[in-house]
Amino acid sequence: MNRVILLGRLTAKPELRYTGSNVPFTRFSIAVNRAFSNQEGQREADFINIVAWRKQAETICNYFDKGNQIAIEGRLQTGSYDDKDGNKRYTTDVVLDQFHFVESKAQREASHTNDVSPYDYQDAPVNDVNVENDPFADFGDSVSIDDNFLD
Q1: What is the spatial distance between Cα 84 and Cα 86, in angstroms, rounded to a whole number?
Q2: pLDDT for 16-42, tens place per residue?
Q3: Which of 30, 80, 100, 118 is 20 to 30 A from residue 67's alpha carbon, by CA?
Q4: Which run of H or of E encompasses 6?
Q5: For residues 51 and 77, what is the distance between their CA atoms, to the nearest angstrom?
Q6: Cβ neighbour number for residue 31 with a 10 Å cutoff
Q7: Helices (H) and strands (E) in the chain, counts
Q8: What is the Cα Rg of the chain in Å?
Q9: Structural domains of the chain sorted by starting position, each given as residue range(s) with its CATH number in brackets
Q10: What's the predicted TM-score (pTM) here?
C-alpha cells in the first residue's frame, strides 16, 4: 500500500506548467509541522515536494498562494536523473490524488497578505465568514476533485 496524507502550508505560490504534450501540471512544496518540539522548544517542519496534474494542478494554481493551508492525499513516487555535472540525483515526491481546502477564502487571503513563514501558522477557527460572498466558507465538508469527473 502506498498512501500519503499530509496537512501543511505552501512554501511558495504554485506555478502552472505544461508538458510537451500540453498536459498541465504543477510542482510545489508544503511545510508540514512535526508533532514535537526541538530542544529549544520550537516546532520544526518538514518540506515535502508535491506534484499535481491536469484540473487539480489548474485549481491549485488558481486558488492557493504562499502560506495557504492545504490537505493532500496521494502516493509516494521516487525517481532519479543525472544533473548537468553528470551526478546521479534522487527524488521523492508525493503525486497528488486529491486535495482539500481547509481554510476559508478570507483566511487564505489573510495568510497571503501577512507573508508569514508557513510553519509559523497555527490552525485557527473560522470567524465571521460571509457565506454569501465566500463559496468556500462552509468548508466542514471536504472538496475533492477527481480528474475523471472534471474532464
Answers
A1: 6
A2: 999 999 999 999 999 999 988 888 888
A3: 80
A4: strand 4-10
A5: 10
A6: 20
A7: 3, 6
A8: 17
A9: 4-144 (2.40.50.140)
A10: 0.67
